Amino acid sequence: MGKMQYKEVLEKLKSLSNPKNVEGMAHFGINPKNTYDISIPNLRKIAKETGKNHELAQQLWESGIHEARILASMIDNPKMVTEEQMEKWIKDFDSWDVCDQVCMNLFDKTNFAYDKVIEWSKRNEEFVKRTGFSLIACMAFHNKDIEDKDFIKLLPIIKRESTDDRNFVRKAVNWALRQIGKRNTNLNKEAIKTAKEIQKIDSKTAKWIASDALKELTSQSIQKRLEGKK
């Protein structure tokens, strides 16, 4: 069944591919190599039909196809994911969307997510570091069980890396700060405080991260929403 299913899924992906659009994807920072340009809703549909399947997820990842890798993150079973697998997958990240989808669909549901954030945010490779901060953003958005104090411990890491001017890193650092600040009133205050500290750093990137985050976190719409959550 395993091999057959793998072939079927690859055939299905090929049939949905949109080669005309692929070239233009580089413009959005997506590596066009081995890419089919299939929408996320279409991938979700296939994931639903396939169901959770750890073994198939590994095969799809090994295919090296962009969309097969996003699909792998949708069908893998987070309880079966090991630290070795996480390390192996992040070495293959070459597009921000694969990175963010894997964080959102799979990595933030594993037991290692928080420890990996601490580890990866220190690493120098652009996509590894991005993964660390994308993972913070996804955890702040999804994981209801994490306590405020654990997110507060991550704010100095955000501050520490706020001068990294590589596009995919700075955007993820900004995203992490904004998501923590949108979680609840208490974290909103802490994130605003951190953003104001980041603003004082003599770095164009840090100033951009801070002002963009402050604009959203102090906005009326966010303040209103957080008030309503109390």
Q: Would you mind describing this structure in some detail?
A:
With 230 residues, the chain is an all-alpha fold. It has 2 domains: 1-76, no CATH class; 92-230, Serine Threonine Protein Phosphatase 5, Tetratricopeptide repeat (Alpha Horseshoe), CATH 1.25.40. 69% of the residues lie in helices and 0% in strands. Helix 1 (2-16) crosses helix 4 (54-62). The longest helix is centred in the middle third of the chain and has 17 residues, at 126-142. The chain is globular, with a radius of gyration of 19 Å. The mean pLDDT is 94.
Helix and strand layout, with pairings?
Layout lengths: L1 H15 L2 H4 L17 H11 L3 H9 L3 H10 L7 H10 L3 H10 L7 H8 L5 H17 L5 H5 L2 H6 L6 H15 L3 H15 L4 H14 L2 H10 L1
Question: What descriptors fit this protein?
Answer:
single chain, 230 residues, mainly alpha, Serine Threonine Protein Phosphatase 5, Tetratricopeptide repeat, 2 domains, 69% helix, globular
- CATH-scheme architecture of the largest domain: Alpha Horseshoe
Number of helices: 15
The main pleated sheet reads as:
none
Q: What is the β-strand count?
A: 0
What percent of residues are in strands? under 5%
Overall average pLDDT: 94
SSE string, helices as H and strands as E: HHHHHHHHHHHHHHH
Task: From the alpha carbons, calculate the radius of gyration and give it in angstroms.
Answer: 19 Å
Measured between the Cα atoms of the first and last residue, the distance is 50 Å
- Helicity level: 55-70%
The chain-level structural class is mainly alpha
Number of domains as seen in the coordinates? 2
Give the overall shape. globular
Poorly predicted runs are none
Briefly, what CATH class of the largest domain?
Answer: Mainly Alpha
At the fold tier of CATH, the topology name of the largest domain is: Serine Threonine Protein Phosphatase 5, Tetratricopeptide repeat
